[in-house]
Amino acid sequence: MRARPLAAAATATVLVAAGLTINGGTAVAQGPGYSALIQRASYGVPHITARNFASLGYGVGYAQAEDNICLIAEQMVTVRAERSRWFGAQASNVTSDLFHQKAIDARAAERWLAGPHDGIHAPSNEVRDQIRGFVAGYNAYLRGAKNKITDPACKGKDWVRPITELDVWRANWTRMVRASSGALADGIVAAAPPRADGTSVPASAPQAEAIVAARDGAPAGVGSNAYGLGRDATASGAGMLLANPHFPWDGGERFYRMHLKVPGRYDVEGATLVGDPIVEIGHNDRIAWSHTVSTARRFVWHRLALVPGDPTSYLYDGQPRKMTARTVTVQTPDGPVTRTFYDTHFGPVVVVPGTFDWTAQAAYAITDVNAANNRALDGWLAMGRATSVGDLRAVLDRRQFLPWVNVIAADRDGNALYADHSVVPRVTGSLAAACIPAPFQPLYASSGQAVLDGSRSACELGRDPDAAVPGILGPGNLPALVRGDYVTNSNDSYWLANPARPLEGYSRIIGDERTPRSLRTRLGVHQVQQRIAGTDGLPGKGFTTGKLWDVTFGDRAYGGELVRDDLVRVCEAQPTATASDGTTVDLTAACAALRGWDLKVNLDSRGAHLFTEFALAGGLRFADAFDPAAPLTTPSRLAVDDPRVRTALANAVRKLNGIPLDARLGDIQTEPRGAERIPIHGGRAEAGVFNMIIGVLQPGVGYSKVQHGSSFVMAVELGRNGPSGRQILTYSQSANPNSPWYADQTRLYSGKGWDTIKFTEKQLRADPNLVTYRVGERRH
């Protein structure tokens, strides 16, 4: 077998010569084996057409390998439990390897593939074909480029090897458990029974401790904004969508733009996480959707009452049950490392020191409802085929596949949808009341973490009659809302998806209600309401895709809008303050910088970084209380008499030592691309910024590298003549510094520019940079 790439202009003559025919202006691959047409548009975005899903997967695997082979290869190192072998034996790599080796030994991915190929009980044949093709396409590129890889991240590295279908399924499993077992991996690895004298074995599990301490179930390091705009919010009356996920700018969770088409069966433009073969955020010709990270918890705890004298057995309905012990070994440069894991019929035993300790009397196991979620790729495939909000909602209801995200959508008829139809453990109000022991009720009320009595079968999760699988809440118990005006989410719970119709009465495990909303959430709603009313300073009323772009990148800092003037008055009235370390700080320059700040996080905004550090230091303290009857406007008044406000400002000045307090943000917040430093606008959610950007503060220099924030941004309108609008991938299509697509979209983002939607043949052919080639191979 061999890959046959062909690069040429997109003309009918070349397409036919490449083994393709033209049907209604669409190139369709013919013949046996794999064959995919790749049309590279501006910024390197591939538009891939194939006759079936296997060939479509082949094209995706080939194109992603061309752009990001090192990212995919490193993902495979992770899921093969080989990070320590190749990248060193530091604790994080060893923990990762032990966790993934346990999953390999337990045949977690193989179990996913067993069962009817219906897309619910086991992956469908279409999705299996996509995975098979993706693997073949990736490997074909690797065969041709093994000694020609230009990315220094993996050039010449022995860990860049051919991949298997099982590798990709294991990677998909890892994505599913990102907010559950994966987030608790160090607690799973650390779990060990107490010593013979009954004392607990000392353990370290900082990642698991952070999960327990978190206010909700959102996985760390990711977030998003999204708007679904209906007929009453847009100038045309058609539906419109803003996708604005906030994801890492480096590593395996980068997005990748692509347009995938199997004529007559699937046609979707958007983005996916690198290494996945299907569009996960995007649009077809009638509907568009995005995701935001949900607040729901993805696992429940079970408190195990241990058998006296046997800490690896637990009582269940009065009868002892033995834990299953599994010994796992991984190879490191320092030699083999071996751990014994313990599992129950609920799931793995987990230790979180100080909260969930394994003692002689009790241990704690989790049920991870995403560990069996093999439905996601089929779910996204079905989303891409939906033709309306109603159709999309039926897909969500039937498949229940979203691992840890909400969905926000809009359709051509001007309907907008919000739904947290994600995979959530079935903790109903009655189950929580009957089965969460009194000492753990406050934890459930404050954070949605359910600690169930593991000694009674009556406290099992059970099954909702409308649920796709046992153990999860059915769609009738999950929040959803369809509107003709708008829905929005910025990582708070479902409660105020639209403030005119609060969603209330749902299980606490999904999220909180009638509680303060973040400044980012509040600004997100204000922006929509002000644009509909025409009171945001932009011309006209209602949204166009251009106005949606302007609103998204308006770079307002809502925290500053609320408190800056009061903060300046406090500062000028008392221009010295004491920092937390006891240092007396002169605030005169800080007062002046804040007074001159334009309340934005634009490139030319001066003093924005000072307010950011003030907010991060805990300075945004309010004098008024939250009012659930006015959730978008309370609290709002700075607690001017609280001494911690001035202390926070002093701390911010100290932290910014060596950086001018009135510096332009674009001079100190940058993203490196080779020797170039690209100025970056946007800012922290803690300051109330919608366009979130989180950078690394280098002392005396500034924010010298973006960690995460706005990534794939899409403003799409579903008009009668087809989808149109704007999109960008802020960190560019390729992580390879030698790629032509390494920095181009990042520069575009710096100037608040955009690439256009290119869904139709007419839109694509109008691209002056279009390059077409075919990839494929015959199977014998």
Automatic annotation (TrEMBL):
Keywords: Hydrolase, Signal, Zymogen. The keyword Isomerase does not apply. Residues 1-29 form the signal peptide. The keyword Hydrolase applies. Belongs to the peptidase S45 family. This is Acylase. It comes from Micromonospora halotolerans.
